[in-house]
Amino acid sequence: MKITQIDPQKQRKFARRVIGQLQDAGYEALWAGGCVRDDILGQVPKDYDIATSARPDNVRQLFGHRRTLAVGAAFGVIVVLGPREAGQIDVATFREDATYSDGRRPDHVTFSTAELDASRRDFTINGLFFDPIKQEIIDYVGGQQDIQDRVVRAIGDPMARLAEDKLRMLRAVRFTATFDFEMDEATLAAVQAMADDILTISGERIGQEVRRMLAHASRATALEWLRRSKLLRVVLPEVAVLDEKWQSMLQVSSALHDPSLPLALAALLCQSTTTDTATDVVRPIRDRLRLSNSETARLDWLLARREDVARARDLPWPQLQRLLIRDGIEELLALHEAITSTDDPHLVYCREKLALPAEQLNPPPLITGDDLLSHGVPPGQHFQALLDGVRDSQLNGEITNRDEAIALIDRFIDNGDGSGGPARRHPGC
Fold first, then answer.
1. Res. 383 pLDDT band, cuts 50 70 90
2. pLDDT tens, 297-347?
3. How far apart are alpha carbons 402 and 366 in whole angstroms?
């Protein structure tokens, strides 16, 4: 299925058009939250949210049931569908929130005014409204001044605001790092006091915030703020214990470019784990951040194989070849480059080998398991050892065709007990 790319200009035009339709119908309607913040910061908003005096039923009636989705009607939210390249807009009725019993969503909402709607939001920089028709910012919470002063500040009482949804603690850190702001002292103190409560939030939500932090170029700053806010020892205790290696870890992390989550985590862990201890460290992180099976496997592999790249020039070619053709090799090399440098001789050697023509880097195998069966070799665990031995000889240039491979199989069997003779296994590559 083809995924349509959202055009930021068309998205913005559609978001303005929705405002216009609501206002023409007699409702108050404003852009709200992150899109206003990003606009003020000179960044292109990733999406647009609209807050309005119109009730959910009014919104559906105005835009039509075919062009709207009542996915959050209980909280006053209606999705308005736009043209394919413009995406969709969340239109939410101005509201006040009741208590947050589950630490995530309000138990119920009461429709209210723009001012009260602003006061229930998380941080002042996210509590701004903008009228794109009048080109006017509406600020009830002091967000403009905090953006000017480059400060992340909770709206109202920080302890109360963070208690409503404890994920806001991680969001405070992410916003502070991403925008290169400072965190308001009272907000930071509240996060420090409540840091242990972050684990009452689901691992999926915690993992999502950590992903966003580590994917951003400001990840080293985010790690510093996680440490300062006392969240790091709860969310990533494996990293929090670093002492003399802390600055070195930050340097390695900063050197990555657009890393996946496994690669970003590997950069945090590579100097404090060994091949033997990696699995024991990865498992708790997997459970805490809800890593997928594929992410866990990749993180395991990166930590287990990083030492092979560090001695690539000294490895037998068959062993290195198996490593270089693995899915994920570019991430492994990126990790090594972040630890060392672009001109590290082992890294250069790997790059040179990867540049070989495909028929040299990874020639088709001379024989398969079917060939062994056809040759009368009984199936068993020795199969892979025999095939590995033949593959090693092929990669070393000792044999070049199927007949020579079969002859080598016979010699392996004659020289041993059928377990493959000199065939060598390279687990993990």
1. confident
2. 999 999 999 999 999 999 999 999 999 999 999 999 999 999 999 999 999
3. 5
Residue 364 forms part of a structural domain: no
Lowest mean pLDDT, pick from 92-101, 117-126, 233-242, 243-252 = 92-101
pLDDT tier at 103, thresholds 50, 70, 90: low
- pLDDT range class, residue 1, cuts 50, 70, 90: very low
Containing domain of residue 392, as a range? 369-415
Comparing CA positions, the residue from 160, 156, 161, 167 lying closest to residue 201 is 167
Among candidate residues 335, 409, 416, the one with its CA nearest the CA of residue 377: 409
Identity of the residue numbered 160: A
Number of domains composing the chain: 4
Return the CATH number at 46: 3.30.460.10
**CA 272 from centre of chain:** 22
Where among 214, 235, 256 does a domain terminate? 235
Please report whether residue 101 resides in a domain: yes
Q: Report yes or no on 421 lying in a domain.
A: no
On whether both 78 and 123 belong to a single domain, the answer is yes
Angle at 7 between CA 4 and CA 13, to 5 degrees: 130
Token pair listed for 156? 């109202």
pLDDT at residue 23 in the model:
98
